[in-house]
Amino acid sequence: MARGSRLARLAALGLLGVLTLTGCAMPNNEFWRFGWPDGITEESQYMRELWTGSVIAALIVGIAVWGLIGWSIVRHRKRGDELPKQTAYNLPLEIVYTIVPFVIIAALFFYTVVVQNRVMERSDSPDETIAVNAFKWNWQFVYPDTEGEDGEPVYTVGNSTEIPILVLPTDRTIRFEVQSADVIHSFWVPEFLFKLDVIPGNENGRNNVFEVTVEEEGAYVGRCAELCGTYHAFMNFEVRAVPGEDFDAYLEARESGMGTREALEEIGQPGESTTTAPFEYLQNTSQGG
Ligand SMILES: [Cu+2]
Question: Which residues are close to ligand 1, an ion, with C-beta < 5 A?
């Protein structure tokens, strides 16, 4: 019984540690990320904190288990030929080590649901909306709130010689409405630490929606993460995250009739993709051409 209550105390202490640690902001550096990739969105920070908290919880459990193993080895090593006192069927102890793992899993599950809800949360009125149209085998990005020279919303579409560049503003909530014209694709920007399946037959992706707030400027590769056919592996795009003013200037340039490349150069950005190469180029180089 004494051993059982000691175990229970240890478990309670561990759980308290997890609760305290996940309750406050986790330090964001190489060590405390425990191998977790560094995301560039606000949402990715919640996931990182969940990971750091989970690893700390696992380490607390691990240290307790390693400690008990070490203690047993030293304290109960063989001293003679006499059989030690047998303590099987210790009911209180068995109840404790059934309940404790359940409590740990319940806590991890609770925080997972909290983080998932925060990551999937939609605002009432996002700052920007992007319609993402996936097709075999490329992407079209439409800015529905804009009006180009032809009266239609401004868009960028990729082909086998051009990587589509998705220009996004930093520090604004961006809603992605994803839609597929044919098969199931998956919209994935590794640095968002997030992907969402792009399902056909879902008009304008209105029910297939997610939001992010990008916190860091830069160029990031985007990929299709659902095997969708022969050229699935070449279904890349590039996210170009720029400051809000530059984003507004980009859309203005697009509305005045400029193409993606010219408008990017207009705001001092490279006109072509910098993180991945179009299919044609890859095909030529892989064939030694
Ligand atoms: Cu695809």
Answer: 185, 224, 228, 235
